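Shipment paperwork, digital attachment
Item: protein structure file
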Amino acid sequence: MTAEIAHSTPPTRELVIALHCSGAGAAQWRRLGEAVGADCELIAPEHYGCDSTGPWIGDRDFTLADEAARTIALIDATDRAQHRVKRLLVAVTAVMAVILLD
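Attachment content:
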């Protein structure tokens, strides 16, 4: 007799996208990452000027739309359920991304 082994795909974790201002970094969301734990995947995209991203090297003047484009690409690249967290007082880039997405 051969035993069948049931294989199941684990459920995909919901995505939490934490958006900070251009002058801040993803590290500010560390405590949020601890709070959501393994239930969600936390992503905090770095902006131009951060060590991990580097400076803006476009062939024209930098705009908020350029900053928002990185976040929009991240959001558009997934079909998972998403929660977006924005810093209230420094959310210019986050608001621009949301406006451009709608």
